[in-house]
Amino acid sequence: MAKIKKGDLVVVIAGKDRGQQGRVLEVNTETERLIVEGVQRVTKHIKPGTRRDNQQGGITQVEAPIHISNVMVVDPETKKGTRVGYRTEEVEREGRKRTQRVRIAKRSGKDI
Q1: Which positions of the chain have pLDDT values less than 70?
Q2: Average per-residue pLDDT for the chain
């Protein structure tokens, strides 16, 4: 189970964008990299007519992947970076009791 998921608010802890916050747009578990909104922006040259949204081409800024070890999930209470832990709780669904893992912030103990 991945500790960082799509849609999480994360803070960059290493690299040129250190200290910036953003939402996770995409997670690649095979390469352990993710794309964060507004972080790790690089210049990309696009040929004319290769994409539907950009018919004339040119130079654009896009987000590049960043390694998962260089970000931390933002704690909902303190608004600072925190490690992720898990808590198991019993949930009743359709008359059956099942155990469910819930992600929690190690800094404050609140659910993420």
Answers
A1: 1, 50-54
A2: 90
* Domain count across the chain: 2
Residue 14: count of CB within 10 angstroms of its CB: 12
- Residues 70, 85, single domain; the answer is no
Q: For residues 25 and 96, give the distance between their C-alpha atoms in angstroms, rounded to a whole number.
A: 35
* pTM reported for the whole predicted model: 0.80
Same domain flag for 42 and 96: no
- Which range of residues forms the domain containing residue 81? 77-112
For residue 24, count other CB atoms closer than 10 A to its CB.
Answer: 21
* Residue in the block written with tokens 């009791």: 97
User: Within this chain, do residues 8 and 61 fall inside the same structural domain, yes or no?
Assistant: yes
Query: Are the CB atoms for 36 and 16 separated by under 8 Å?
Result: no
**Computed over its alpha carbons, how large is the radius of gyration of the chain?**
18
Alpha-carbon distance 38 to 36, whole Å? 6
